[in-house]
Amino acid sequence: MTSLIIYLGMLGPWQIALIVAAVLLLFGGKKIPELMRGLGSGIKEFKDATKEDEDPNKIEEKK
Questions:
Q1: Residue 26 placed within a domain
Q2: Domain span at residue 40?
Q3: Which of 1, 31, 45, 47 could disulfide-link 27, Cβ–Cβ 3.0 to 4.6 Å?
């Protein structure tokens, strides 16, 4: 995780702008909100799964 933070710290504004432009060209403006929603729900599921692993004796009342 630390290496990822160091790598992201090395990106300048031009590199970030180039990445954003490439994503826009590849996916188009209409697909990006769908992709971000999917990414957000995936991250939420991952966090929920890691919380379940931390405390296996806790009964989940949401479901």
A1: yes
A2: 2-54
A3: 31
